[in-house]
């Protein structure tokens, strides 16, 4: 594959799942939009490489719920998110942290589901690690922005419907290794 074709495909992929106004990939947009943040690996791992994971625990009224998630820390990882994924398991997901990637502090986020074939629950997390909003069972392939509604410092994506099944709600506390506070 020529370098020109590869560069064009890479640029298209980054634009599709952006951090700007439709996902975490359009850094130019004032309120990043990430598309159902879908990632092949989410951590920059290449083919045949395992993606790094961490445990995210959500403390809800009915107990603690632990998810093993991939970490999307870079703009490119956040732009791709969970795009193209069809293999998401019930207690797996992706954490977009820090959000935004430039470390400028919490800001409103808009994610989308472009190129994301599976419904997701998108959990917007405030800087104090409480849940600000849960967008449940997002519509696969939709390019409609899904806003956080307020500034957030992290975003967690899990299998669609899991938040409701587990009783996860706005205001619940979220913890992960290295989290602020």
Q: Please state roughly what percent of the residues sit in beta strands, choosing from under 5%, 5-15%, 15-25%, 25-35%, 35-45% or over 45%.
A: 25-35%
* Number of self-contained structural domains: 1
CATH superfamily: Protein of unknown function DUF192
Main beta sheet strand tally, sense and closure: 7 strands, mixed
Q: How many extended strands?
A: 10
Could you tell me the mean pLDDT? 80
Specify the CATH architecture: Sandwich
CATH topology title: Jelly Rolls
CATH class category:
Mainly Beta
The SS-based structural class is alpha+beta
Q: How would you sum up the global shape?
A: globular
| Cα radius of gyration in angstroms | 15 Å
| pLDDT < 50 runs, ≥5 residues | 1-49
The helix content is 10-25%
One letter per element, helices H and strands E, the order comes to HEEEHEEEEEEHE
Biggest sheet: strands side by side, in what order? 7-6-9-4-3-2-10
Describe this structure in words.
- By secondary structure, the chain is of the alpha+beta class.
- 14% of the residues lie in helices and 28% in strands.
- 44% of the residues are buried.
